[in-house]
Amino acid sequence: MHTRPLGRSSIQITPVAMGCWPISGITSVDVTEQNSLDTLRAAHDSGINFFDTAYAYGYEGESERMIGRALGQHRDSIVIATKGGIHYENRQQQRDGRPETLKRQCDESLRRLGMDHVELYYLHAPDPQVPVSESAGAIRDLIAAGKVRTAGLSNASVEQLAEFHAVCPLSAYQPHYNMLQREIETAQLPWCIANGVSALIYWPLMKGLLAGKLPRDHEFVEKDGRRKYPMFQGEEWQRNQDFLDRLRGLAAEIGHSVSEIVINWTIQRPGITAALCGAKRPDQIRENAAAMKWSLSPEQIALIDQWIAERGPTVSRGAV
User: Smallest Cα–Cα separation from 113: which of 48, 144, 68, 162?
Assistant: First the structure.
């Protein structure tokens, strides 16, 4: 399977990664432990070598623990990213980017994973009460201690990226990005390209919206976290469905699913190193992995870009 370098490090990753938030079961519905374990194994069997998790993926670290159980035997052939700086108190998300917290959470993440190091460790999100440079210093110390090979920063501005990078050189930046949420193209993505930092994006399918499998009359149950995002409501929902109808037509024409088309478009964007695809069932991750085994033509990409422009500005909202 073709791989790409992670920033300026020697680490090689597949352009489709498995995002391991859904298997935590916090905001996704119909999640089972067996399906989650099977999904992790299916990702590896499908050629994915890169798995992205976090200390806060699960109230009790469920995501990290399942990765250790399902993939521990393949440690030498996989790349693990995890994150620190967000945790839960009484099931409410809290930020804490203090150096002592990041070091403690990293140690706990390694215990959950059953591993002595991870390839990539992120500050999950800047803490407004802690200078980014202090959080960066903690991750620099974790690299020096051999617990982490290289550093990442998620959900950050260009100014925060630069402040972190000055203290601890970054290999990766992780923002949301997809056909309908392209804010990073203005500032963060050019900064990453200029500084040799990989953009490893989440939400390439916008929480399942761009998979094209949700009908116009779909009703979201109360636990489904997508209810709070404008993309899934009112006029925005209808305009997105109009856009998806065009992608469905292209999918039927070229013999690839809407998900494959969306992911393939994403990993061909300048500066995008990998798309982190969330999944909770084996069939989902197999379909996602298939997107890195072929390429849209320049003409097909131009047509999709025209449809995106005609869709018009979206009402966007981030994860944190």
Answer: 68
pLDDT tens digits, 134-191? 999 999 999 999 999 999 999 999 999 999 999 999 999 999 999 999 999 999 999 9
Does residue 59 carry a catalytic annotation?
A: no
Cβ(78)–Cβ(50) below 8 Å: yes
Residue 309: inside a domain:
no
233-276 pLDDT, tens per residue? 999 999 999 999 999 999 999 999 999 999 999 999 999 999 99
Q: What is the rounded CA–CA span in Å between residue 65 and residue 81? A: 13
Residue 248 counted as domain residue: no
**Whether 212 contacts 247, CB under 8 Å:** yes
Specify if 244 maps to a domain: no
The fraction of the chain above a pLDDT of 70, given in percent, is 99
Residue from 57, 121, 173, 229 carrying the catalytic annotation: 57
Report d(CA 295, CA 306) in Å as an integer.
Answer: 18
We report the CATH number of the domain holding residue 23 as 3.20.20.100
Structure-token pair, residue 136: 């960066």
